[in-house]
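REQUEST
  id: r-88c1
  op: predict_structure
  target: Single-stranded DNA-binding protein
  payload:
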Amino acid sequence: MSARSLNKVQLIGNLTREPELRYTTGGTPVVTFGLATNKSWKDQEGSVKEIAEFHNIVAWNKMAEICQQLLAKGMKVYIEGSLSTRSWEADDGSTRYKTEVRVNDMILLDSKGKQGAGFDSEVKSSAEEPEADISEESSTDEDTTANEDPLEDSDLPF
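RESPONSE
  id: r-88c1
  status: 200
  body:
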């Protein structure tokens, strides 16, 4: 009997960029955006220190369309999902890796969504994407993600 395992991520943070909706060659919608989470603590001298972590978020199918319609840069959101790491070969021959949080559930934490409607309810993905779509998306976006700088000045929440 195999040992149990768990791949679950829960994040509350602010969007660092507008959601970007694309479609795989098979027509499956996929949206990507950044999320910043913050941590603060006091050091030994009593000074408050802060650090921000930046996360790559990806949503598929109906959840992708919902994220595109409701989310905007700066909004506070709860994301629940799993970690997924993909790899590709860059132009220079090196292997590149990108770890993303794949959204299963989302809750808007701002009082208003992108469209100005008050949404405080949980949004659940109705269907998981087929594994074939993942490799399709990875292969079609290799060129754009291989050359992207993961952080830009506009991505920083401060």
